[in-house]
Amino acid sequence: MDKALKDLPETPEELRKLVSQLQAERDAFKQRADTLQEQVNILKAWRFGRRSEKFSDHPSLFDEAEAEEQTLPEEEVSDSEPEGTVDVSGHKRTKGKRKPLPANLPRRKVIHDLSEEQKVCGEDGHTLVEIGRDISEQLEIIPAQVTVIRHIRLKYGCPLCHSGVQREPMPLQPIPKALATAAMLAFVAVSKYADALPLYRQNIILARSGVDLPRSTLANWMIRCGQLVQPLINLLRDRMLESGVIQMGGVSRLVEIQEVA
């Protein structure tokens, strides 16, 4: 220890250089130790983990598209292949046909027409006439748009007596004085409870649109929405308990309903 102290530099500049060098070496050793520890954890999980948790049983998240493509029949890999027949040993099989898009979806027409110069016959110079149309459809998704509704309530007052100010009251809101409209609350609730999208991820998605909504605010909205729908939940529970048979968990069991005094 005394020998190590004697070898220390005497000037402050040299001491700073030595400290910086030691800190760099410490960070390198720590990073190496973390890497080795992670490798040990992976090997232990692979060697001693449960069969359902081993990595070989789980496909890579990044190879999902390729994995799905390998499971499709050959005629379904390309959705642009026209309907027809394919030769199979002994007979001909009709190829799969693409399912039509739902008729209730709104349609936006895009007309692809010839220019006026192209509507002239190259053989005799006569004007071409329309003889038919080729129609194809594509599915398009418009990303969610974040907008701000500005409520402007006009105020009126008598210019003579100045008796008071009159204005239209604010429309009823699910959560008074909250930033969220009913549509916004429904979007957050469906994303969380139907699409399994956590609130912290919704916070990140909204941040990409320039909206900073803390996770605590989103959570408070969901709690308030739960309080709003509690009467409906109670009604559903009462209606369920009125039944002589309740089906749950995919298994039908007879349940005797007893009135509690």
TrEMBL record:
Occurrences of domain Transposase IS66 zinc-finger binding (ranges): 119-161
Region (Disordered), start-end ranges: 57-103
Comp. bias regions, Basic residues: 91-103
Transposase TnpC homeodomain domain mapped to chain residues: 36-110
Skewed-composition ranges (Acidic residues): 63-84
Residue ranges of domain Transposase IS66 central in the record: 178-248
Top-level division of the source organism's lineage: Bacteria
Signal peptide: none
Protein name: Transposase
Organism whose genome encodes this protein: Magnetococcus massalia (strain MO-1)
Lineage: Bacteria, Pseudomonadati, Pseudomonadota, Magnetococcia, Magnetococcales
